[in-house]
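Hi support team,

I've been running sequence recovery on a batch of backbones for a student project. Most finish fine, but this one hangs at about 90% for roughly twenty minutes before it completes. I'm not sure whether the input is malformed or the queue is just slow. I've pasted the structure tokens below so you can try to reproduce it. Let me know if you need the job ID as well.

Thanks,
M.K.
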């Protein structure tokens, strides 16, 4: 791991911004994802590669975000500039569900909801390698994800 990893937790309650809080270890990353899910938090955990802890935030690229809302989990990433992907949980799931992502409530495709274990594995892999395996079939470009 040559570049700095910066992990930030943004918490939203009633659409009110409450974060950030920073930490930088595998164990803390895993614990935070589980706590977000188990606590039914509307929150986003952001991992930035090469970021400055004092100036963290978009547009540091690459990044990965694990979002939790109402007991649901979703994972998005921008591994290279202007290439956005969502982790697919169940490719056969249809319809949309209301969820809070990044402090914004909206309808989210059900197939993009993942298990906490899938989110944790994606976050750990990104934390370790600074990329996501978009060729492996578990990720889809956001433009196609939101079209249905």
């Amino acid at each position: 791991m040559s570049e700095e990893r910066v992990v930030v937790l943004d918490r939203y309650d009633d659409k009110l911004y409450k974060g950030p809080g920073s930490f930088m270890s595998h164990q803390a990353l895993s614990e935070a994802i589980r706590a977000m899910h188990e606590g039914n938090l509307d929150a986003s955990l952001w991992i930035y590669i090469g970021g400055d802890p004092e100036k963290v935030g978009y547009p540091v690229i690459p990044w990965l975000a694990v979002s939790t809302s109402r007991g649901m989990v979703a994972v998005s990433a921008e591994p290279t500039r202007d290439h956005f992907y969502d982790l697919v949980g169940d490719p056969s799931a249809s319809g949309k569900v209301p969820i809070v992502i990044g402090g914004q409530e909206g309808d989210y495709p059900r197939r993009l909801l993942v298990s906490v274990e899938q989110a944790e594995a994606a976050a750990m892999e990104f934390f370790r390698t600074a990329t996501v395996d978009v060729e492996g079939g578990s990720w889809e470009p956001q433009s196609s994800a939101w079209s249905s």
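--
Follow-up from support: It reproduced on our side and the slowdown came from queue contention, not your input. The first strand starts at residue 5 and ends at 13. No action needed from you.
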